[in-house]
Design goal:
This protein is an alpha/beta fold. It folds into three domains: 2-87, 2-Layer Sandwich (Double Stranded RNA Binding Domain), CATH 3.30.160.230; 93-428, Glycosidases (TIM Barrel, Alpha-Beta Barrel), CATH 3.20.20; 434-617, N-acetyl-b-d-glucoasminidase (Four Helix Bundle (Hemerythrin (Met), subunit A), Up-down Bundle), CATH 1.20.120.670. Helix content is 45%, strand content 11%. The protein has 21 helices and 14 strands. It has helices at residues 10-23, 62-77, 109-122, 152-163, 180-183, 203-217, 239-244, 249-266, 276-282, 297-302, 319-332, 352-369, 392-401, 409-420, 424-428, 446-452, 469-484, 491-519, 523-555, 561-586, 594-597, and strands spanning 2-6, 26-27, 34-40, 46-51, 54-59, 83-87, 93-99, 126-130, 168-169, 224-226, 270-274, 308-312, 337-341, 373-378. Helix 11 links the parallel strand 12 (308-312) and strand 13 (337-341). Helix 3 (109-122) runs parallel beside helix 13 (392-401) and helix 19 runs antiparallel to helix 20 (561-586).
């Protein structure tokens, strides 16, 4: 396709050249299929009009141009010769936050740029990379030690690339809790309240926080910064309690926030923080989603006006709860930001049914309540088994909510297929990685604990006893094979899930079957397990491990992968151990298998499908880690 562009401002030229490569069109001054005239506008909207092979795109912000361009190209692809596109943005800020800290998967800058390009096509205008200790602090080598830190140059390069499309990169960090990976080192013990939390009031705490704020914000053009402060569950109950005596959490939070704001004001920065600690501090049960909380006027006045509260919620799928909680937030701060999520942190899959249900309800309420800034969180959590690009369909959902009151799924799917050049149906099928029970809105992380649980200990066997995982994953493997054969840049995601399904089609029910055969004295089946099933399973796990490793090293920094090696290596080593145990039993060297004699209990005493996104609690009831403070 040849397109003649006229009146293209300099600020768009580099981004436009990238989009030409993305969408496969050629910019020409000679013969053309149609022309696009670019005009600036004072009105913040997306506007394009095509007549007689001449299209005019008007824009007020760069991101609106690139959204308009993708809409125009999609309309031309659909065979439309004359059309008018006009969209009014319903959010001033709409984007995504990718967690690279909690799941050990620090995305390489090259692939942060790939995310930025996809976001630009969709029309999203904000990107955060959630870091805890994943940036360089000069003179503090143990901050982010061996954790895949970004250099100042890497972050600046990403920021400048995002700016080509009008996407604001906002630094996102922590200034209170969620700092376990640094505070575990003895060099930080002086100003550690507990394993996870900084010691409020200590001078060294604020010296380090200033260093963190300066380092994390320096690479970026924006003056906005997300300073975290969420989930400080034991705030004031560790060293702080020993030094200061008991102090209500709300007072500690306000004291700390004021000290941090002094630093931010000194550097001319505009902060936002997660809101949960204010709610937990006044909840009788220390709960975030407690609709009975009451804030006194004195409490409300204690929160500075220049701090934006970020209300994070991805658990409710009805509008009434969001209505109540946005109203509660507005009593504290009128410039509330809403953060939802793309549900990809619970294991290998992406729970798209839950993502769509929670997002539709939440963002509809945000529009009704006048919330002007929203973003989707993409958490890592406990290993990041899911591929980061499996979340793109969720980002498209956020984008379409940004330009329409109630976008239907058909529209979201169609836009996604054009923007990302891949099948929306295939991406939504990632929902079935964990959805072994149809129409279950929960769809817990079944694939994760089925992969990591032990064949003999079977911590989840009782929960899964009524489910045929072999059948489920055999069908999913066949479906994924069809999607992986599609010719696009994301086909490897479906190859990965196909290989996972091949392993789980064997492993998912094997532990249950071994236990059953043992108690029924089914010697023939146990011999079959030893001679053929276990060797085949080990080969399937090895194939999965290699595939996972290959795309991890391509997309992510290498630090963190060693955790996955330990997990896969543990599964393969245990296959050998199980083979030995069964062989010893079959050949009479062991008269009983004690680990199969003990009656299996449902996990957490909760029958039926359950959730456990914590590897340390999946393979064994014995200790893997107790998170003890280093002495």
């Amino acid at each position: 396709m040849k397109i003649k562009f006229t009146n293209v401002p300099d600020e768009l030229k580099q981004g436009l050249a990238i989009m030409a490569e993305e969408f496969g069109f050629c910019m020409t001054d000679g013969d053309f299929d149609f022309a696009i005239n670019v005009a600036q506008s004072d009105k913040d909207n997306v506007y394009a009009k095509m007549e007689n092979k001449v299209c005019t795109i008007r824009y007020s912000a760069k991101i609106r141009f690139f959204r308009g361009l993708s809409r125009v190209l999609e309309s031309v692809q659909d065979g439309k010769e004359s059309f008018v596109i006009e969209e009014t943005p319903l959010f001033d800020m709409n984007g995504a936050m990718f967690d690279i800290a909690q799941g050990n998967a620090a995305i390489k800058p090259k692939y942060i740029k790939r995310i930025i390009v996809e976001m630009a096509k969709m029309g999203l205008n904000m990107l955060m990379i959630y870091t805890e200790d994943n940036f360089v602090l000069e003179n503090r080598p143990f901050f982010g030690y061996m954790r895949g830190k970004y250099t100042e140059e890497e972050l600046r390069d990403c920021d400048e690339f995002a700016d080509l499309f009008g996407i604001e990169m906002i630094p996102c960090m922590q200034t209170l809790a969620h700092l376990y990976d640094s505070l575990k080192w003895p060099v930080f013990s002086e100003f550690r309240d507990d394993n996870d939390t900084l010691l409020v009031g200590h001078p060294e705490t604020y010296k380090m926080i200033e260093e963190m704020i300066v380092a994390s914000t320096k690479p970026f053009k924006t003056k906005r910064v997300h300073i975290g402060m969420d989930e400080a569950m034991h705030l004031g109950l560790g060293k702080y309690l020993a030094v200061n005596g008991y102090t209500p959490k709300y007072e500690i939070m306000i004291e700390h926030l004021k000290r941090v704001l002094e630093i931010l004001n000194k550097h001319g920065l505009k902060p936002m923080i997660w809101s949960d600690m204010f709610f937990r501090a006044v909840s009788k049960t220390n709960a975030y989603y407690d609709t009975s909380v009451v804030f006194t006027d004195e409490m409300k006045e204690m929160i500075p006006d220049n701090v934006q509260l970020v209300y994070w919620d991805y658990y409710h799928d009805t509008k009434d709860f969001y209505e109540k909680y946005i109203d509660l937030h507005k009593t504290l701060n009128d410039s509330t930001v809403f953060a939802g999520a793309v549900w990809s942190w619970i294991g290998y899959g992406t729970n798209y049914e839950k993502t769509f249900r929670t997002t539709d309800a939440a963002l509809e309420v945000c529009k009704e309540k006048g919330i002007r800034e929203v973003f989707a969180t993409i958490w890592g959590d406990d290993g990041t088994e899911a591929n980061v690009f499996s979340t793109l369909l969720g980002l498209q959902l956020y984008a379409e909510h940004g330009y329409a009151q109630k976008p239907d799924r058909e529209t979201v799917f169609k836009r996604f297929e054009f923007c990302c050049n891949t099948s929306a149906k295939a991406f939504f099928a990632l929902d079935r990685v964990d959805r072994v029970k149809p129409n279950d809105p929960l769809a817990p992380d079944t694939a994760k604990y089925s992969m990591w649980q032990d064949l003999l200990m079977g911590m989840f066997d009782e929960n899964l006893k009524n489910y045929n995982l072999t059948e489920h994953y055999t069908k999913l493997s066949a479906e994924m094979r069809v999607y992986e054969e599609q010719d696009n840049r994301y086909a490897y995601i479906f190859r990965y899930i196909r290989k996972l399904s091949d392993a789980l089609a064997i492993k998912g029910d094997l532990g249950k079957n071994i236990t059953k055969a043992y108690h029924e004295n089914n010697v023939d089946y146990l011999k079959q397990v030893v001679e053929s099933v276990l060797p085949e399973l080990k080969e399937k796990v090895k194939i999965l491990w290699e595939d996972h490793m290959n795309w991890w090293f391509e997309i992510n920094k290498p630090q963190g992968w060693e955790v996955m090696d330990i997990r896969y290596g543990g599964v393969m080593a245990r296959i050998d151990s199980v083979k030995k145990r069964l062989t010893d039993y079959l050949e009479g060297r062991e008269l009983r298998l004690e680990e199969l004699e003990e009656k299996k209990q449902p996990y957490h005493n909760q029958p039926g499908l359950t959730a456990c996104n914590n590897y340390a609690r999946i393979p064994t009831a014995s200790r893997i880690s107790i998170g003890a403070t280093l002495r």
